[in-house]
Design goal:
- The longest helix is centred in the first third of the chain and has 40 residues.
- Helices cover 65% and strands 5% of the residues.
- It has one domain.
- The chain is mainly alpha-helical and 329 residues long.
- It contains 14 helices and 4 strands.
């Protein structure tokens, strides 16, 4: 089954990946420079023998400290999939509680030729679906109570197929790897902004000291940080298009996915409050909640900036592409 992106999209994704690798190197280099400076100052103050403060010693210690920070951030990512599920309060479903849902997921996974993911149900009225897991065999599919209330059977199948396409494409692993410094900085930003998603379920922020150090490094290369966020968003949008194409290839029903996207987008827009509409969760969801850009003279500018940093394409653009696919059939 082929749902590979078109040539222009593949070029765009490859370019974004290359530039993001450069961003990772720049962020690590900046963090290393900060650590080297701090260690040099500490040695200058504490060393009994000034001759110990050589350039070689300081650089070597700075390099070791930088590798340690990077290793800590990478090590911390091992719990990212479980945390993404936990912050929604989702619990694993079984044959007794939701046999029809499990049967649907199995059928779609077999059609896509991927391992059947674990299925969990989130207790929220917001129509939510997302997948996590760095490898297909360890993937978890999360759907919400609100999704069942909002979608028909065909629409639900299309949404599950979209998420299964993400699993087949290993999107969670790719985006986590290339966005490593950006992800660390985002965790710090969310922590400083207020209560994080998952607190009510006993799963607060994963942000740690290593994330803070990497964020400090990004602050010293602020243009690189901004560029990285733009690239991550662009890559994520491209992979959403690919997942949409995958859902159509699996189900053969672009109209069902289009209808599902319209229903979810409308329902999410009408749900007041924060709910699970946070960066950590919404970036994995099938539809990214629209930000409130307000009114006034600056609203158009805020709207453009919001589009640039959005992790999902505008729903109307996705609908137009799906209509084109439906017309081709």
């Amino acid at each position: 089954m082929d749902w590979s992106p078109d040539r222009a999209l593949r070029v765009r994704m490859a370019l974004a990946l290359c530039l993001l690798c450069v961003t990772v190197v720049a962020a690590i280099a900046a963090t290393g420079a900060i650590l080297t400076l701090l260690l040099g100052m500490a040695i200058a103050v504490a060393a009994p023998d000034p001759e110990l403060l050589t350039v070689e010693v300081v650089v070597a210690l700075g390099g070791v400290a930088t590798v340690a920070v990077l290793a800590a951030v990478v090590w911390g990512e091992r719990t990212a999939p479980e945390h993404a599920v936990a912050v929604t309060g989702a619990t694993r479903v079984d044959e007794e509680s939701h046999p029809e849902l499990l049967s649907l997921v199995r059928a779609v996974a077999q059609q896509a030729d991927v391992p059947v993911p674990t299925v969990a149900l989130a207790p929220t009225d917001t129509p939510l679906s997302l997948t996590t897991g760095f490898r297909p065999r360890n993937a978890t599919l999360v759907v919400s109570d609100g999704l069942f209330e909002t979608l028909s059977t065909d629409e639900l199948e299309a949404v599950v197929a979209h998420e299964i396409a993400h699993v087949a494409n290993r999107d969670a692993a790719v985006l986590t790897a290339v966005a490593l410094p950006v992800g660390a900085a985002e965790r710090v930003r969310e922590l400083l902004a207020g209560p994080t998603a998952g607190v009510e379920h006993g799963h607060p922020s994963r942000a740690g000291y290593a994330d803070a150090l990497l964020t400090a490094g990004l602050l010293f290369v602020l243009p690189v940080w901004v560029g990285a966020q733009l690239l991550v968003a662009s890559l994520a949008r491209a992979r959403e298009f690919t997942a949409d194409a995958g859902a159509v290839a699996i189900t053969g029903n672009p109209a069902a996915l289009a209808s599902a996207l319209e229903r979810i987008d409308s329902a999410v827009a009408n749900r007041p409050g924060r709910d699970f509409r946070t960066t950590a969760v919404s970036a994995f969801a099938i539809v990214e909640p629209s930000a409130d850009h307000g009114d006034g003279i600056l609203a158009p500018i805020r709207r453009v900036i919001g589009r640039l940093f959005a992790t999902h394409p505008p729903t109307e653009v996705r609908l137009a592409r799906l209509k084109e696919r439906a017309d081709e059939r």
